[in-house]
Amino acid sequence: VSAERSAVIQALGDAGDVRVVAELGDILRQDPAATTRAAAATALGRLCDSNAVPALVAALQDRIVSVRQEAAWALGHIGAVAAVPALTNALGESNADVRFAAAFALAEIGDRSAASALMPLVQHSEERTRLAAASALAFLDREDGLAVLAAMVRSDDVWMRFTALISLLRLNTAAARQQLTDCQETDATLAAVISGGLRVGG
Questions:
Q1: Which among 6, 98, 179, 190 has most CB atoms closer than 10 A?
Q2: C-alpha span between 152 and 184 (Å, rounded)
Q3: Residues of 43-53 as b/e, b for ≥16 C-beta within 10 angstroms?
Q4: pTM score of the predicted model
Q5: Contacts of 19 (CB under 8 A, 6+ apart)
Q6: How many CA atoms lie within 13 A of 138 on its CB side?
């Protein structure tokens, strides 16, 4: 039953009708099933309506990781400047997935007031957290973030390299493009991603 409800909720998000925002917010706050609450957060993010922000900010305190993570992603999709303080607090989460989502949400929102909270995370012991913080800082026009991304494209972990490369491609600044040109990627798939991205971005 929970899976069926989640599928219906996702369909509501895909339909793009913002009249369901209040109902989805109630589900996010009150539904006993974590999978349903997470689906509601995802759907609210797809609807991109600012009226969803209070429920999503509250969901950053949900006891279930997947709900907190989806709420962070959704706030980024909406571009919710009002959520910056709550997302900044989420950078201190014990769970790496939530930290990752919060950092990328802050990158999407683009509020430079988040930079001071992101800066310490580029030294974090967990590599994904460093990557997310660096990506966010780079999108906030901080050179220190770009420098960490440049180092990440040389990571031994293919997924880390791919994510760093995508961040640089999305930045598409002269400095980011130079880092991509200089990175000498040995993985054929990633090399093709770089080559294609540089052609499109140029």
A1: 98
A2: 13
A3: bbbbbebeebb
A4: 0.83
A5: none
A6: 31
